[in-house]
Specification:
The protein is mainly α. The chain has helices spanning 11-33, 39-58, 65-87, 96-126. The chain has one domain (12-126).
């Protein structure tokens, strides 16, 4: 007897996690922009939001067009936030939060790319499409 193990559809909770991570990620940018030594706390907060975004991705949030739009929208708005945040300093190179948020965004994009490439490789090697 052959049983197939289909992955359950978790696209709605994944999409919800994208929205939650985006909202709280924006709060981290707001916290950092107030200055007064909040950069470290904002960086930790932003990295937690990146973890929530990653959980949404791993739950299958990209399996629906809504989830894909929310995920890419959150990343795009975070990039815009980071650029605007960086432009508010002269020079921005020494700001901890700017580097931490940029590293978080790049880490998410690269991790997403690696996971998708592995899945494509696995599908190609197992003969499924």
């Amino acid at each position: 007897m052959h049983t197939t193990h289909e992955r359950p559809n978790h696209s709605r909770p994944g999409a919800l996690l994208f929205v939650v991570s985006w909202l709280f990620g924006n709060a981290a940018f707001a916290l950092a922009s107030h200055g007064t030594g909040n950069e470290f706390a904002a960086a930790v907060w932003f990295w937690l939001c990146c973890g929530v975004w990653w959980a949404g991705f791993r739950l299958g949030g990209l399996e629906s067009s809504l989830g894909t739009g929310l995920a890419m929208g959150a990343l795009g708005l975070w990039v815009l936030d980071a650029v605007l945040y960086g432009l508010s300093f002269s020079p921005p190179w020494g700001d901890l939060f700017l580097w931490a948020s940029a590293l978080g965004i790049v880490t998410l994009v690269l991790s997403m790319w690696i996971v998708q490439k592995r899945a494509e490789h696995f599908d190609a090697s197992s003969g499924t499409s």
